[in-house]
Amino acid sequence: MNSESTRDTESLLKEANKSILFTTNRPNLVMEKGKGMYLWDTNGKKYLDFIGGWAVTSLGHCPEVILTALVQQSAKLINASPAFYNVPMIEFAKLLTDKSCFDKVFFASTGAEANEGAIKIARKYGAKFLNGAYEIITAIDSFHGRTLATMSATGKQKWESLFEPKVQGFKHVPQNDLIAIQKAVSANTCAIMLEPVQGEGGVFELEKNYIRSLRELCNEKNILLVFDEVQTGIGRTGKLFAYEHYGIEPDIMTLAKGIGGGYPLAALLTKEKFDIFEAGDQGGTYSSQPLGMAVGKAVVNEIIDKNLSKNAEKQGEYIRHQLVSIASKFKLTNIRGKGLLIAFDLPVEKGSKVVSECQKRGLLINSPRPAYIRLMPPLIVTFPEVDEMIAILSDVLTEVLSE
Ligand SMILES: *Cc1c(COP(=O)(O)O)cnc(C)c1O
Fold first, then answer.
1. Is there a catalytic annotation at residue 143?
2. Ligand 1: which atom is nearest the Cα of residue 257?
3. What are its E.C. numbers (predicted)?
């Protein structure tokens, strides 16, 4: 037992079963605190966290800069209402536009909400300039969120018949297939929306030539190229934004997850010429709320100041190198990813077993598909922590794969 914890895990779990609406299967443990790369549950058990709050805790758990930003801003102003500008809102928008190819920012609280905004700009653009074109092309196996429109945008087969009727106007094409997407574009198309690296789909990257061709296609057809960088943005892939890898500029980029370091925060960035909303088209009670703005600014500044994108690139390379070194022993294949968004394939569909055995030994990892393992640690991860992860994973693979 953890001497610091005063909580009785059994009674907490009993209460959770009673009062939490079921949406997902969770293990029988309750998380209580975090610091850096580690989480602790109410039994005092410590976990090395390679899920990172789902690619969210970019600075690790409970970093000083977030604590400070929250304390200082909450003493000054927590909410001014979305009807007024506030100071951190303006400063944070300046920071994001200074550091990216974009001119304008809309702030929200979740990735799905930022993507809804992107879909709305694309449809508005289609209505105004493309004779009412409204169709948006997305990729098979993509993930764009859980609101009705973003579920419709998502190219997940399991969702195809869920919550009918769908929001109309989304077409799904296979990723990296230029001919398929050229064929899919019609007079009804207003945008193409893609993740530069599919996260939930299992870490599959767009090819550089494909992206460049899409940029040309969008220019030629006068339609928008939208990058959903909710998972890839803010240092995750080794650059501040993933689009920087490809030598192109999207028309819209959405950010969430890592941008708040754990605080619910999202942003939509676009160019001056797509600043086309009229008053009331888009908004939200919590859009640009000062507390989130102060946290976001602190998180992004810290990532830039500490050059954590570079660390993501370096540690990502080291992780892939270490995975390669155990690959033949465990028949691991398709070791892939960019920066600290990494996945590989198991020889058998035992992903959830590997995850639960790792958890028992104090390591948190993710299995987005039965044979895939995904790693998305905080950007602050260091070599010894990678070694610790590889050691636990190797033990677990030895056990699980010999069964
Ligand atoms: C997580 C995710 C979303 C949804 O973000 P929420 O904050 O959960 O709404 C959208 N797009 C991508 C690529 C994501 O990884």
1. yes
2. 7
3. 2.6.1.11
Label residue 324 by pLDDT band (50, 70, 90).
very high
257 is catalytic: yes
- Quote the strand ranges of 211-314, DSSP E: 224-228, 252-255, 266-270
Output the six-digit token pair for 376. Answer: 């998305």
Q: Give the H or E element holding residue 73.
A: helix 64-76
In this predicted structure, what is the pLDDT of residue 6?
A: 66
Atom from ligand 1 closest to the CA of residue 264: 7
User: Which numbered atom of ligand 1 lies nearest the CA of 232?
Assistant: 13
With respect to CATH, is domain 76-305 assigned 3.40.50.2300?
Answer: no
Q: Three-state SS for 232? A: coil
Please give the average per-residue pLDDT across 173-195, as a whole number.
98
| Cα 383 to averaged position of ligand 1 atoms, centre (Å) | 28
| pTM, rounded to two decimals | 0.97
Q: Does CATH place domain 3-62+307-400 in 3.90.1150.10?
A: yes
**Domains 3-62+307-400 and 76-305 fall in the same CATH topology:** no
Per-residue pLDDT for 71 more than 60?
yes
In 3-state terms the chain splits into helix, strand, coil percentages (rounded to 5) of 40, 20, 40
CA 395 / ligand 1 centre spacing (Å): 32
Instruction: Calculate the average pLDDT of the chain.
Output: 97
Q: Where are the domains of the chain?
A: 3-62+307-400, 76-305
